[in-house]
Amino acid sequence: MARTRFSIATAGTATIAALATVGFFAASPAMAETFTFGSGVPERSSANSKGVFPALDQITEATGGRVSFNPIVGGQLVSLPNTLQGIRDGIVDSGFFITQFHGADLPYSSLMAELSGLGTDPYATMGALNEIFFVACDKCREEFRETGLVPVLVQSASPLTMQCTMPVETAADLEGKKISVIGTPESRWADKLGMTPVRTRITDILPALQLGQTDCTLIGTAWIRSYGLEDTVKGVIEMPQGIITGAVPLVFGTGTWDKISADDRKAIVSLMPGIAWDYVNDAYVDMDAVVRDTLKDKIAFAPGDEAMRALWNEYQAEEVLALKDLAKSRGLENGDALIDQMVEVMRAWHEDHLPGFKGDKDKYADLINQRVFSKYDF
User: Fold this and answer.
1) Which residues have CB under 8 Å from 244's CB, separation 6+?
2) β-pair partners for 219
3) pLDDT for 341-350, tens place per residue?
4) N or C end: fewer C-beta atoms under 10 angstroms in the chain?
């Protein structure tokens, strides 16, 4: 039996309409997708309300609704320590995860979580972290690709402050106290102060302070509200003591990223220079000021003393060697050179670039786009 050949000239009107509907005459537009976004960060955290959620909304708007999100946060689907596995295994399509929990899976990338002692300005730290990851550290990006992850932004936060269950003002007030710390740089700083560091998950800091397991913690001022410490913290030393690094607030699974059209992926990346500023400014810098003003009659805020500042300078001077020792302990290829490169990028953003963009979002966005996101290669 002869095979029938299709002819547009002989096709019926209904057939032509049906073919047009499925894109016979032109490529159909990308289908709209709603992706699950998972995070262990508490719902009330400013990192969500002022950082992540507005960024997700901007992506939805920029892609004409073709990429939207269903955020499920507060550990309902994934916790902070297992978000990487949740994204990799398809439990969620995208999410917020912290590299420091994954030293074994991401030995190079997780070094970013060890840089907190080098950061002093949140905007400069944000720029430096993204340049380190997306430009300077080839091994970091290789690890993400091999793990099935596509990051679009690395975040910094606001400066860490010493927060205790009693009024504190000086380095002498802190000596001998137990302190909940999140990472090893904070542990080293605690050692320098003569305190006893206790590694504590961020979600466990409140009960640790309430139960007297620790006396102090080292987190951003806005986190007093985000993690429910308003009735527990009584004294804060505001001297900046590093900036938490290593969090990736928006990362997609490779399969999810592949579902997004090339044009929409490009649109998402093009948003990142502005989002980088908004994220750290709105979620952390502004919220620090709001929380401090709200609690100033309830919590004793102090600037710290010269002895504490002298100890901080000694601590920072020792951090490069500590980072190189860590890289060596992990057996990282060219570890010393990589640490030198990371330190130089941090220095350049704080000393060379910061004076040129300080307080100016447009200049900042232009710079981070030029140095980082114009080179995005995922």
Assistant:
1) 116, 156, 157, 160, 182, 183, 219, 220
2) 161
3) 999 999 999 9
4) N
